[in-house]
């Protein structure tokens, strides 16, 4: 990148604030200079300048012909130290959190908006329960209950010898084995709590500027109904991303963290008390009464958890600085205490109690699957009701993007939990497919998990049809676009069929991004139907697919056996690949940065549904950018253009929405390779839909957007000219800039696609035009360096350890 391009010759002091996109960039590459200095910020996110520009404010005569370039680097927010590799475990939680923000826009329908948020939060709660139940399946059922009861298994793994039922030791009693094994899922829940609390202290603690405290068009503290109400008095209409508390979800995350932590502990407690109470059911005495009391206590606390999750959502009309410390403390503590009591109850001596068969895992996983399917269907109904008053044809899946993504989150969690259980069962019981070994006692996971693994090959087969259609369409589009390419480069003279084909193919491949909703819809719909079929098959047969069709036609029986074996192999391979990827990311910074690209896209949004999701980096980045823009304009009276590439353009837009009106009047927005409409506008219509983007254009002083037809991520923002303002989108940039060899370009120019927008001469012209449209700088009397002066009355934002 090279921001040092010609700029206007007049207008006074000007600053160009560069914001990089996904994957990150170094300040040296952004500023095109190896000598850069961090002027504000920390190692996690900071603003850099060239060394020669460090004292630019004291020597304005040097910058009469160009703006002062600054680079905001935020990549370490998503790809910092090795602990980021642990975030791979949180992938289903991140996807569920995205579903919260994908609701259709709504006006005057606060009840439906609130209901949408409640249903998404309940889906997220089931994911925490499912992950904890999978850990219980591995530790309690497969290891402590099944393996420890089998002499052959404990002989094969000597470290389990002290649990062996055949040795008659103190730990050999089934209840005590279960109580000891419960430490594993309990530690997992504790780890999730620790990660969430650590990132909550670093990310959700960053306060946005509070100098602009005018009332906003929001009907109350409940954000989920914020788009609907008629204000009682004169207020400033601001979109959701411009509200003072949008990037400060500290209170909600703390409350949800307490609820989900308690849900995890209660899941482990339920597994312990159910197994012990099932044995005590036919007896009479203190143990039976205690079992009923503990089961009732688990049910009551579970109802409290559900009530806490269903309470009002985020508060965005103001900075909500409160934290419900009593709730945050006592709910997890009470659940952990109840778990300890159930462990003592399970460890009670019960002569004659032996572990045989499996723990009641089929019922648990089956109930979770049905609950998740029902919640996703309910979410789809709510989304359709929200979308019905006015439908934007560009909205992904006609407003059903949220339910579809929620279904994918459930599928990811199911694959992860099933993969762990399948692999541990294979490890403990040998190489045979679970449930398909020799007749007699076998160690295997619940039957439902085998059925769910069996539908994976079917799902992949179903995906072949749309994938093949997209491939054929891409080839046909490439042929069709050849004439358009030749017309665009008509001045080049001689035609080169190979060069034309390369450019046309690049444009055709870039258009595949617009087909993503089709694939997501097919996968989520098929997953919903196949998940229901797997539950029905498991409950109807009570056996794994390879055994359920033993009496059927040989072809059907063989097909069932093959799909089960293939599905078990696929889910195991996926789990091993997942672990390998995480291990490599822990040790390799470049691999960690690759994973960081996934977080760049998935963790832009605050944690409104799942507190264990990876943290929202925008809750640090947006306040950083807002403070920096405010400090420059207040200190110098100069002009400012914030220049965002790719995901950086989304951060830039969000930061502009947060500015005070006086600051916005001195700010221009330049976006390039921007997914603002192509991805965010289609998938998050309530926040980046057509109305929101037009409002952004009216909010900022001026805005220009650059894009290429070969860019698979960026595209036009589709904001037309209105109220005397020109259209935001510039003419589509040619890529490559030269068709063949010319005197100016003696070597073949590459097809850049999503990168190096600043290398195009149009970038410098567009930036110069924006700066010329801004009002000239006005002199200010300063008593301190503008790099040191706080922009508002609150002081500089806190630093983050990441």
From TrEMBL:
Q: Which organism is it from?
A: Streptomyces litmocidini
Report what the protein is called.
Answer: Integral membrane protein
The opening ranks of the lineage are:
Bacteria, Bacillati, Actinomycetota, Actinomycetes, Kitasatosporales
Q: Which InterPro entries match?
A: AB_hydrolase_fold
UniProt entry keywords in alphabetical sequence: Membrane, Transmembrane, Transmembrane helix
Q: Which residues form the signal peptide?
A: none
Is ATP-binding included in the keywords of this UniProt record? no
Positions of the UniProt region annotated as Disordered: 212-234, 777-802
Can the keyword Transmembrane be found in this entry's annotation? yes
Q: Where are the transmembrane segments?
A: 85-103, 115-135, 178-195, 258-277, 289-310, 330-348, 363-386, 398-421, 449-472, 516-539, 559-582
């Amino acid at each position: 990148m090279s921001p040092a391009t010609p700029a206007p010759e007049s207008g006074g002091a000007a600053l160009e604030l560069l914001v990089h996109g996904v994957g990150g960039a170094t300040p040296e590459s952004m500023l095109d200079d190896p000598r850069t200095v961090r002027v504000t910020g920390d190692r996690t996110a900071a603003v850099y300048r060239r060394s020669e520009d460090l004292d630019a404010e004291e020597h304005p005569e040097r910058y009469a012909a160009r703006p002062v370039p600054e680079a905001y680097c935020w990549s370490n927010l998503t790809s910092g130290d090795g602990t980021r590799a642990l975030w791979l475990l949180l992938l289903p939680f991140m996807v569920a959190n995205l579903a919260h923000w994908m609701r259709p826009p709504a006006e005057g329908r606060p009840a439906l908006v609130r209901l949408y948020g409640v249903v998404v939060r309940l889906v997220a709660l089931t994911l925490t329960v499912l992950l904890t139940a999978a850990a219980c399946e591995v530790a309690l059922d497969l290891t402590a209950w099944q393996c420890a009861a089998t002499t052959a298994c404990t002989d094969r793994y000597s470290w389990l010898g002290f649990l062996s039922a055949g040795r008659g030791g103190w730990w050999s009693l089934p209840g005590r084995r279960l109580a000891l094994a419960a430490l594993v899922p309990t530690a997992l829940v504790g780890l999730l709590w620790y990660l969430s609390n650590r990132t909550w202290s670093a990310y959700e603690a960053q306060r946005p500027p509070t100098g602009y405290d005018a009332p906003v068009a929001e009907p109350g503290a409940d954000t989920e109904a914020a788009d609907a109400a008629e204000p009682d008095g004169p207020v400033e209409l601001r979109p959701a991303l411009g509200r003072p508390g949008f990037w400060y979800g500290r209170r909600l995350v703390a409350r949800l963290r307490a609820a989900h932590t308690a849900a995890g502990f209660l899941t482990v407690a339920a597994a312990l008390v159910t197994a012990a109470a099932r044995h005590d059911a036919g007896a009479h005495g203190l143990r039976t009464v205690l079992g009923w009391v503990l089961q009732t206590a688990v049910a009551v606390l579970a109802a409290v958890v559900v009530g806490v999750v269903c309470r009002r959502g985020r508060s965005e009309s103001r900075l909500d600085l409160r934290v419900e410390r009593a709730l945050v403390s006592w709910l997890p503590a009470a659940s952990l205490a109840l778990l300890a009591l159930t462990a003592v109850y399970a460890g009670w001596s019960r002569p004659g109690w032996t572990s045989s068969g499996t723990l009641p895992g089929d019922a648990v996983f089956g109930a979770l699957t049905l609950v998740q399917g029902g919640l996703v269907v309910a979410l789809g109904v709510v989304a359709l009701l929200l979308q019905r008053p006015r439908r934007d044809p560009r909205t992904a899946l006609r407003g059903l993007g949220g339910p579809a993504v929620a279904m994918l989150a459930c599928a990811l969690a199911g694959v992860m939990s099933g993969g762990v259980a399948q692999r541990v069962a294979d490890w403990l019981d040998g190489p045979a497919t679970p449930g398909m070994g020799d007749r007699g006692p076998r160690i295997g996971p619940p039957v439902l998990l085998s059925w769910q693994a069996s539908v994976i090959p079917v799902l992949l087969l179903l995906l072949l049809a749309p994938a093949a259609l997209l491939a054929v369409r891409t080839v046909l589009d490439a042929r069709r676009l050849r004439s358009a390419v030749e017309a665009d480069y008509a001045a080049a003279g001689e035609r080169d069929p190979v060069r034309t084909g390369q450019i046309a193919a690049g444009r055709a491949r870039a258009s595949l991004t617009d087909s993503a909703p089709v694939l997501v819809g097919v996968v989520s719909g098929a997953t919903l139907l196949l998940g229901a079929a797997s539950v029905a098959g498991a409950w109807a047969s009570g056996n794994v697919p390879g055994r359920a069709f033993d009496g059927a036609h040989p072809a059907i029986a063989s097909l069932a056996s093959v799909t089960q074996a293939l599905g078990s192999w696929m889910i195991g391979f996926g789990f091993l690949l997942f672990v390998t990827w995480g291990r490599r990311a822990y040790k390799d910074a470049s691999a960690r940065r690759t994973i960081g690209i996934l977080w760049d896209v998935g963790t832009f949004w605050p944690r409104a549904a799942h507190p264990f999701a990876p943290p929202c980096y925008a809750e640090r980045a947006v306040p950083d950018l807002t403070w920096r823009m405010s400090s420059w304009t207040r200190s110098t009276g100069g002009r400012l253009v914030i220049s965002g590439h790719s995901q950086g353009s989304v951060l830039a837009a969000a930061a502009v929405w947060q500015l005070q009106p006086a600051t916005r009047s001195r700010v221009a927005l330049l976006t390039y390779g921007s997914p603002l409409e192509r991805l965010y506008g289609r998938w998050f219509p309530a926040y980046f839909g057509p109305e929101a983007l037009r409002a952004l254009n009216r909010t900022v002083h001026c805005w220009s957007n650059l894009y290429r037809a070969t860019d698979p991520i960026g595209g036009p923002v589709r904001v037309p000219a209105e109220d005397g303002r020109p259209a935001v989108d510039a003419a589509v940039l040619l890529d490559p800039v030269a068709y063949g060899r010319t005197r100016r370009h003696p070597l073949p120019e590459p097809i850049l696609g999503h990168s190096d927008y600043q290398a195009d001469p149009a970038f410098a012209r567009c930036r110069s035009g924006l700066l010329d449209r801004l009002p000239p700088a006005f002199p200010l009397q300063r008593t301190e360096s503008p790099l040191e002066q706080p922009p508002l009355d609150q002081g500089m934002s806190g630093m983050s350890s990441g």
